[in-house]
Amino acid sequence: MNSKISLSNTCRYEGCTVTGALAVTAFVPDGISIVHGPSGCTQHNVSLLHSTLMQHEKPSIPRIMTTALGEREIIFGGESALEKAIGIALERSPHAIFVISTCVAGTIGDDINAVCAPERDVPVIPIDCAGFLNGGFRQGFVSALIGLSTLIGPCAPGGDAGVNIIGERNLEVDAEQNFAEVERILASLDIPVNVRYVRNAATADMKRFGNAGLNLFREDPGGLLSRFFAQNFSLPAICGYPTGPQAALDLISRLGAIYKTDCREALREEEAAWEALADDFSDLRGLAVSLAPDPSPADGRAARDFTEYFGIALSRNAPAVPWSDPVGIGGARRLLRQWRRRAHGY
Amino acid sequence: MKQIALYGKGGIGKSTTSANLSAALSDTGLDIMQIGCDPKHDSTRMLMHGTWIPTVLDLVRTRQESEISVSDVVHTGYNGIRCVEAGGPEPGIGCAGRGIIATFQLLERLGALYGDVILYDVLGDVVCGGFAMPMREGYAQEVYLVTSGDLMSLYAANNICKAIQRLSRRTRTTCLLGGVICNSANITDEKDLVATFARRIGSRLITFIPRDRIVRVAEVNRQTVIEYAPDSPQSDIYRSLAEAVYTNDMLTIPTPMETDELEDLALEYV
Ligand SMILES: Nc1ncnc2c1ncn2[C@@H]1O[C@H](COP(=O)(O)OP(=O)(O)O)[C@@H](O)[C@H]1O
Ligand SMILES: [Mg+2]
Q1: Do A259 and A145 fall into the same domain?
Q2: In chain A, where does DSSP find H-type helix?
Q3: Of A151, A179, A198, which closes a domain?
Q4: Is there a domain that residue A60 lies in?
Q5: I need a labelling partner for A44 at 20 to 30 A (CA). Which of A311, A323, B140, B220 fits?
Q6: For the domain that residue A56 is a member of, what is the CATH number?
Q7: What is the band of B127 on the pLDDT scale with cuts at 50, 70, 90?
Q8: What is the arithmetic mean of pLDDT over B96-106?
Q9: pLDDT digits 0-9 by tens, A149-192
Q10: Atom of ligand 1 nearest to the CA of B10
């Protein structure tokens, strides 16, 4: 039973479950997402996606439909409205259809799995997003990543076509820059990216998922994602983008071990790059700051290592600077620039 | 205007009792309306001489609301009684409770709720908020529980008491328990048992209705007992029920029994 009192639980991952699912499905360019609920659920989410994507360099307008449930569908059931919407979606020739249920569809007990089940020209994938079932944004996000795994083709054992990047935070402004950081590290070991699961990946791309030699998860707080992919696709896994120099070096070492390549050169280059960054920001040495928002316990260690490396002291009463687990050198540079502006006013 | 609701376990005899009660009240010259609030939609069938009238939700399903008029939903039956059936979704899909709410809102907007007595015949396992709608402000002020001496039907009646009690805590609710109607299942000492139950929940037995073959005979003739056999003893019973309900001024907030208390009570009468 969900006994949460909502106000004390409003943090970034406890938003709408539907938003979480759309943060995945809307990034499949040849797919259509159907939100099975009142039109407001769709309107609200589409406008949020729209305003978020406007901040990105190349905004693309994802295809999202609503089944527009009204009182009539609530009383008599919304399954035929969903069937109709799937029919309309099929006419637009997508390569996959994602059916995202909402609170109200869950309340009246519409069986979206049954409606999606019949064989059609393209996969129709149900994603249960009744938010009242204890889930929020993160739950919808994870459910969508798991649901879309039916698009993945059979695994080629011993594949080494590169690394799958799983669960990028698509709504984040820095998503592309963060990815570039990881891609840079992989390139230093001559490892290519295989599939970005799911960021602007067409359904055909996802078929290649199984050719990879490793799954790299953007993050996996509850371990739910890595467990699922471990059970279903026997690929080695690494969880979390690297924050700070030590995490970056660790990542290189682990990649070296998994891909059985000599990583000493890459480690040296990475170390040198971080030292250069520290030089660039030597004016911040001796500064005392507090972090806002407070890093989560999991991030706490990374935050301490990070500030220590740059000779910055953490002190509860010092002026607050933003903290957002910066990814790699690029993320560190952007964050340190913000801190410099706070500290010196330029 | 007096608005009353009959609640009770499925198959216990709510519709039979409601229709005969409406018929008996209407015979005294009162203007009566009966609203069936059960997806089974057979509440008013005997008043309509066996005709299945279109339900409100059938109309809601097939038409725009602006195209629905009073004459589409309200049908005149025995002695001018205005009959309405809420209806419901197909079994196993949708939300019947929301259907009851929608029905009430539509009747309200159409201005169809009027008369000397409005009688709501409601499905008795109060499964969700929608089926408590007739008890809300502006609708029934009196609830009558229809039960036999069978434990399961007492159990259902007791649950309805819980709903009444809960609603009575709301400042603007005016719905109270009017009493218990025993529709006999030919159980030994049934009248005593149900009377005791009624006392224990802080109410009283209004009428004991015997089980009588004439009910089924009238039914196959598509009539209420009042219409089919006005001179039968069973009709006298329904008329005395009508009198008791119409003049009833003993309304209480019930005190539902604990389940084991209820079981103990039933055990005493086995
Ligand atoms: N007092 C009675 N004597 C004989 N049969 C009865 C009596 N009351 C109800 N019945 C029969 O019981 C059946 C169910 O009654 P009904 O009124 O439809 O129950 P409900 O509306 O509670 O589901 C009907 O077939 C009816 O003929
Ligand atoms: Mg009935």
Answers
A1: no
A2: 17-25, 39-54, 71-76, 79-91, 103-108, 112-116, 137-147, 175-187, 203-206, 224-232, 244-259, 264-280, 297-309, 328-344
A3: A151
A4: yes
A5: A323
A6: 3.40.50.1980
A7: low
A8: 92
A9: 999 987 766 667 899 999 999 998 899 999 999 999 999 999 99
A10: 23
B230 has a chain A CB within 8 A of its CB: no
Q: What percent of chain B is predicted at pLDDT more than 70?
A: 98
Q: Mean pLDDT throughout B175-186?
A: 96
Known catalytic residue at B14: yes
**Positive or negative torsion for Cα B143, B148, B152, B154:** positive
Starting at the edge strand found earlier in the chain, the sheet holding A237-239 runs: A193-197, A163-166, A214-217, A237-239
| Structural tokens at position A98 | 């994602």
> Residues with Cβ < 8 Å from B187, sequence gap 6 or more?
B148, B149, B150, B193, B269
Top residue of A69, A76, A103, A111 to mutate, by most chain B CBs within 10 Å, is A76
pLDDT: is A218 or A14 the higher one?
Answer: A218
Same domain, A286 and A267: no
A157 assigned to some structural domain:
no
What is the model's pLDDT at position B174? 78
CB B186 within 8 A of CB B180: no
CA of B17 relative to ligand 1 center, distance in Å: 8
Mean pLDDT of chain A: 90
Judge if A229 and A327 occupy the same domain.
no
| Cα–Cα distance for residue pair B214/B198, rounded to 1 Å | 27
Distance CA A19, CA A140 (A): 7
Same domain? A89 vs A188 = no
Contact residues for B84 (Cβ-Cβ < 8 A; gap 6+): B33, B34, B35, B36, B44, B53, B56, B73, B74, B75, B103, B107, B112
A28 and A127 together in one domain: yes
Partners of B95 on chain A (C-beta within 8 Å) are 74-75, 77, 107-109
Q: Classify residue A282 as exposed, middle or buried by CB count within 10 Å of its CB (0-12, 13-18, 19+).
A: exposed
- Domain positions in chain B: 2-268
The answer on A233 and A103 residing in a single domain is no
Q: Report residue B93 CA to chain centroid gap.
A: 24
The band of A7, judged by pLDDT with boundaries at 50, 70 and 90, is very low
Backbone angles phi, psi at A35, to 5 degrees: -95, 115
Total number of domains in chain A: 3
Residue A135 or residue A272, greater confidence: A272
The average pLDDT across B22-42 equals 96
HSE at residue A138, side-chain half, CA atoms within 13 A, is 14
Residue A304 lies inside a defined structural domain of this protein:
yes
Indicate if A266 and A203 belong to the same structural domain: yes
Indicate the pTM of the whole model: 0.85
A51 and A137 assigned to the same domain: yes
Instruction: Tell me what ipTM this predicted complex has.
Output: 0.79
Quote the domain boundaries for residue A32. 11-151
Domain boundary among A125, A151, A177: A151
| Contact assignment for B57 to A79 by CB distance below 8 Å | no
Indicate the residue type of A315.
S
Nearest ligand, CA of residue B211?
A: 1
Fold of B2-268: Rossmann fold (3.40.50)
Q: Reply yes or no on whether B125 is catalytic.
A: yes
Q: Which bound ligand lies closest to the C-alpha atom of B14?
A: 1
Phi, psi of B133 (to 5 degrees): -50, -45
What is the C-alpha radius of gyration for chain A, rounded to an integer number of angstroms? 22
Q: Do B61 and A76 touch (CB under 8 A)?
A: yes
Pocket test for ligand 1, best of B22, B215, B236 (most atoms within 8 A of CB): B215
